[in-house]
Amino acid sequence: MAAVAASPIAFAPMSARRLLVFGGIALVTAGMLFGDIFAVFVLHQNAGQQGAALLAASRAVAAGDPSAVAPVFMHLGGLLEDHGTKLDAHVHMIGAGYLSLILALVQPYIALGSKTKKSLAALFIAGGTLLPIGIFLIHYVGLAYSPFAFIGWASVLADTAGALLIIVLIIEAWGFRSYLRNRQLSESALPDDDTWPRRALLGGGTLLILLGFLHGAWYAGAALYQHEHAEAEILGNILAASAANDFPAAATEVNNFGNLAGTRAVNIAAHSHIIEFGLLAILLAFIQPFVFLSETWRRRWTQVLLAGSVILPVFVLLELKFGLLAGGIADLGGLLVVIALVGMLVGVLRYTGTLDSVAPGRQI
Amino acid sequence: MNASQRLLIFGGMALAVFGMLYGLHYAVLVEHQMLDRMGGSLAQAFTQAASRNPAASQAALEAYRSTKYDYVRQVDAHSHWIGLAMTMIVLGAAFGHVHYNESLRQTIALALLAGGTLFPLSVILQTYYHDAVLLKALAIAGSGLVIASMAAAVWGFFKQKPST
């Protein structure tokens, strides 16, 4: 059995682990909040504008006016970039948050000095914050003042932040390798409690991940290739109908194109969200001993989190049948997860704050 | 920390670093050009159709389809590598609660690592050999390994802890 070599305090103020837990939950919460705002105020409007742009391109084809096509596609490219960068910012912010929580869990197994670990944690949080900010700014900064042909300054910021995350991970992996050699924990391992919230988060989390895997496998096997084929076919139909000056048929195909894009988007969103929430639940299971709230409140936040984790992906899928009503309920599910995260974050804050200090004799 | 946990955590970290390095390489050297080509070929398809040149329009549409085929798989490989890596690391930390003997836990961990590597790898190789049946089969096998090992882990979580 591994021995504790260093600090007896597992969760000391401003330790690398505390920084990573705070930063991780904050990044996940901010990323989810951003995702909810994106879903409500940008996603559907952007999709509508894309459809309108495709219709404008069809009109240009019907009119036999090649010069009118380029401006439409410039506009369409801008819309796609706007959508893509916001989606990427959302995904990368949450991804960095998860990695931060994972690093917090494995800190006892990273055989590095506490100062080094703290610096690495700070660098990781900085990188995890700057990466999505850089991605978000790509659409707005563009290639302004850039010496490169394809890459703007916002991309440089995002890529640099991404490189920072990689460097930190490599050093952490090196620290883990060192642990494997001497088997000395650098700080206390996580307490092995067996409370209801932890069991529910562990079991619920793994079930959510498994459901997500099964849905992804079903989608890849049953729909992915069909959808790819259908997209090319619909675009061909739009072009053929427009060239034949059959604008109503072209408009119908543009509508079909939008429906297909929507079907793909909700399937991918449901697949990725249910897995992410499963991972989040498992990660939160481990930090439960540091959530200084009563058992009743920890149960409540666990139930709220798991309920939101099921509601969001299920109702995202149901958007195909029930439209915006289901979309609204899905957004509410996302909000439930955010509320539960904030509730747990408050519990973590109370742990290190002056309100609740570690009780004498309490084993951490 | 036992051998199965080490395998999951170390394997997951290695996979995460690899997935991120691939993502960085992709973002710096490939993605912008790829997106430019994709948008350009679709615009070209419409321009040629407006010029009443159906053959060139069809060729541009085919170029768009082919580029998008690659783009989807490159992004999927990047996200699945990192996603599966995170799943492995998290499972590694929780593996003490998977109530099997250590030999079975090592088998599950190995299957997850093999599936987590093979699945995105065969997806990315499809960009070099479009619609290759062997690569599709490998992707299915990889994802099957991941699902089977995850299902086994879920069962292990709910299984009664063996009395010592």
Provide tags for this entry.
heterodimer; A: 364 residues; mainly alpha; 8 helices; 2 strands; disordered N terminus; disordered C terminus; B: 164 residues; 4 helices
Number of domains of chain B: 1
Helix-strand pattern of chain A: EHHHHEHHHH
Structural class of chain B: mainly alpha
Give the termini separation of chain A: 18 Å
Give an account of the 3D structure.
- The complex is a heterodimer of chains A (364) and B (164).
- Chain A has a two-stranded parallel sheet.
- Chain A contains eight helices and two strands; from the N terminus they run βααααβαααα.
- Chain A has 364 residues and is an all-alpha fold.
- Chain B has one domain.
- The two termini of chain B are 18 Å apart.
- The chains are: A mainly alpha (364), B mainly alpha (164).
- At the A-B interface, helix 1, helix 2, helix 4, helix 5 and helix 6 of A face helix 1, helix 2 and helix 4 of B.
Which helices and strands occur, and which strands form pairs?
The complex is a heterodimer of chains A (364) and B (164).
Chain A (H helix, E strand, L loop, with lengths): L2 E2 L11 H47 L6 H38 L7 H28 L11 H30 L1 E2 L10 H48 L3 H41 L7 H28 L1 H29 L12
Parallel strand pairs in A: 1-2
Helix pairs in contact in A: 1-2, 1-3, 1-5, 1-6, 1-8, 2-3, 2-6, 3-4, 5-6, 5-7, 6-7, 7-8
Chain B lengths: L2 H48 L3 H41 L7 H24 L7 H26 L6
Helix pairs in contact in B: 1-2, 1-3, 2-3, 3-4
